[in-house]
Specification:
The chain has two domains: about 130 residues, no CATH class; about 140 residues, Immunoglobulins (Immunoglobulin-like, Sandwich). Helix content is about 15%, strand content about 45%. It has four helices and 20 strands. The longest helix is centred in the N-terminal third of the chain and has 17 residues.
Length: about 280
């Protein structure tokens, strides 16, 4: 295991060092920073790795695709134009580097950098089969596609939960689920759980279930009045015919309404491959 981790880290470093990212004039990209300004660098995919070459710059990841940086609070040692650090950002399938230069004028400091895809160099990440940005694009393509499953649904408390589509590409399942609220009472989602469990529960002690976590979903909303829909992306999985994949949606209220959608393995096997019209 340690050998695999070390090899993966070395592969990232080799890819970074082998293709220094330059701007169109052939110079290293540069951003001006000041200790009174937080500089935010946004890329179009999740950040997998960051290197700040000196201790003169500190940084963190407030969200998965944004690096926030700032010089240490000791500007007396810095002069206008000093290079404080080289920043290396590695995403799921791309990378970029910046020189950070100091400016004593906070009005000249860069507070926001939106990195364009064409400004980044690509590299092979052995740990990523599909970037999350691509997953989102494919999921939104499914959103606009017609429903294919019309007989996989469940209704409780006048809430109908329905399986709309299952698609598969590479090592992932895209599972499209919607809920229709036939009441006038707003539904506050407490949690949504995914499990593989026995179809029949004979004895509580023998009942087995496995929690499943999606890699990604495209709807982060936690309440709805009439309609709710989401597309959940999972690593490909299999299970025996005597088990079932369930989607359990629970309400926040004390007397919360819970609905459970049961998806048989036969329905998983009928997952559609992505059509060319969805891929592009």
């Amino acid at each position: 295991m340690k050998r695999t981790v070390i090899l993966n880290v070395l592969l990232v470093l080799v890819n970074v060092l082998s293709a220094q990212v330059m701007n169109k004039s052939g110079e290293m990209k540069t951003i001006s920073v000041n200790e009174q300004v937080s500089s935010h660098i946004t890329i179009g995919e999740d950040i997998e790795y960051v290197d700040i070459s000196t201790a003169k710059i500190v940084g963190d990841l407030p969200v998965k695709n944004i690096l926030r940086i700032k010089p240490v609070n000791d500007s007396m040692q810095f002069k206008d134009g000093d290079i404080l650090a080289l920043i290396t950002i590695v995403g799921e399938r791309s990378k970029i580097q910046f020189n950070c230069t100091y400016t004593p004028d906070r009005n000249k400091a860069v507070s926001n950098v939106d990195v364009k895809t064409e400004d980044m160099a690509s590299y092979v990440n052995v740990n990523v089969d599909m970037p999350k940005a691509q997953m989102r694009r494919l999921a939104w393509s499914i959103w606009n596609d017609g429903h294919k499953y019309f007989d996989v649904s469940r209704e409780d408390y006048r809430l109908r939960i329905t399986l709309n589509n299952i698609y598969t590409i590479k090592g992932y399942f895209f599972i499209d689920v919607s809920i229709r609220n036939k009441t006038n009472i707003e539904y506050d989602v407490d949690q949504i759980r995914f499990k593989i469990e026995d179809k029949k529960q004979t004895k509580a002690t023998n009942f087995q279930q496995i929690e499943m976590e999606p890699v990604l979903s495209i709807n982060e909303g936690d309440k709805f009045t009439k309609e709710y829909r989401n597309i959940y992306i999972f690593d490909k999985f299999t299970f025996p015919d005597e088990k079932v994949f369930t989607v359990e949606v629970a309400e926040k209220q004390v007397s919360g309404r819970t609905v459970i959608l049961r998806i048989d393995y036969a329905d998983i096997l009928n997952a559609d491959a992505f059509k060319r019209s969805l891929l592009f």
